[in-house]
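Troubleshooting: if your tokenizer reports a length mismatch, compare your output against this known-good record of 215 residues.
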Amino acid sequence: MKTFLLGVSIFLLYLIYDMNIHESFKPVNYTIEGDEIYQKLEDNNVEYSRFNYKTKECKHWYCKEMIKQVTNKKVLVLGVALGGIIINILDKYKNATVTGVDISDENFDLVKKYSDTNRLTLVEEDAKVYIEKTKEKFDIIICDVFINKYVPEFVLSKDFLDKINKMLLPNGKFLINTIDIDVKRLLSIMNESFRNATIETKTNYLNNLVFVTKN
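Known-good structure output:
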């Protein structure tokens, strides 16, 4: 009986933990303004995602810079958020296929509404869990994962980046968006996992982008 009660207690604690995790990652509602849709952070009301649903274009510079690196290939996007990057890629590159992974599916219907769903796969899962499980490989992997305005520690861990490296096809590219991270530290982290790769950075205000190309 004691064993049974202990098992029930552990199960209930797990459910509570799981609910809290998902709640903490729950994105804020989006706002429609003219032809554009955007989201703001809850704690400081700063806008972090915006796209034009008629032209299918992302409006923020870091989205545009990452999309420039994409071609008609197999793309993985970790961190769907509002979906502007995915919508823009599928519109611009007519032969590209995109898999989008996010811990919340709240905006998946929005992404599907403005995308070619025949070339789109959306997965509701933690990015860390997804890369542990998947056997797929990609030409382009975009990492735009945040908890509110912070990059989760696991994203910049060697274990995570090593797995990303293994998921890239020959001559594949890894594109990552970070905020308020020292560029030298960022490059040091990338060099540990992506040896003999070409690594470029672009910085504007708080956003630091890193583009890694496997040689």
